[in-house]
Design brief:
- The protein is mainly alpha-helical.
- The chain contains 6 helices and 2 strands.
- A two-stranded antiparallel sheet has the order 1-2.
- Strand 1 and strand 2 form a beta hairpin.
- Helix 5 runs parallel beside helix 6.
- The longest helix has 23 residues.
- The N and C termini lie far apart (about 40 Å).
- About 35% of the residues are buried.
Length: about 200
């Protein structure tokens, strides 16, 4: 199958962010203080990070990604879902602007300027993973079309696996073994150091 175009990736990203909203709507008040699969972060911390990344990528799509103020995690206040929802709308609008996918995205946290297709791919992978992170806290599964997961898996396979790019302080944990019968989503999670068995969410729904 041909590699997805930047427009395909933008569409996949939109689908993923809509799923992140569906999953986050299931969060109860007590869930916001629960630990997430991101070590040291509660669900509230994770969603603040996700919100900041949306604003940062939106700025990058519009040529302002070098301004680090866009990448600072905000206070979510009393209505964290509303704050996150607004950030989703913001990044989707930025990606949908004419020519956004053809621009160079300055991504200071990654360290450089990247073609639009590559940058949107980074965002897609990040949000497939973080949608799973949120779902694991609130105790539900995620539902993404196979082409979306396959695209994210292809990007995950290209993430450097050497220790310099993994572990504490890095974006991803060390790679975990992938079971022979793993689904594409499970393979992607293992490649990024996550195990469904290690974080099963709250005990009851």
């Amino acid at each position: 199958m041909d590699d997805p175009s930047v427009n395909d990736l933008i569409a996949f990203d939109r689908t993923t962010l809509q799923e992140s909203l569906r999953v986050l709507r299931a969060a109860r008040d007590a869930d916001w203080a629960r630990p997430s699969p991101c070590v040291g972060w509660t669900l509230r911390d994770l969603v603040a990070h996700m919100t900041a990344q949306h604003h940062g990528f939106a700025a990058a799509a519009r040529g302002s990604g070098a301004d680090r103020t866009y990448w600072i995690a905000p206070e979510l206040g009393r209505h964290p879902f509303k704050v996150y929802d607004e950030s989703v709308r913001h990044v989707l609008a930025a990606f949908a602007e004419e020519g956004a996918g053809e621009r160079g995205f300055v991504l200071p946290e990654v360290g450089g300027t990247f073609p639009g297709r590559v940058a949107v791919g980074f965002h897609l992978l990040d949000y497939v993973v973080h949608t799973w992170d949120v779902a694991s806290v609130v105790g539900i599964g995620i539902d993404l079309p196979r082409p979306v997961v396959d695209a994210a898996l292809d990007i995950a396979r290209r993430v450097p696996k050497d220790p310099e790019h993994r572990g504490p302080g890095a974006a991803f944990a060390p790679v975990l073994p992938t079971p022979e019968d793993a689904s594409p989503l499970e393979e992607m999670l293992a490649l990024l150091g996550r195990s469904p068995e290690s974080h099963t969410g709250r005990a009851e729904r």
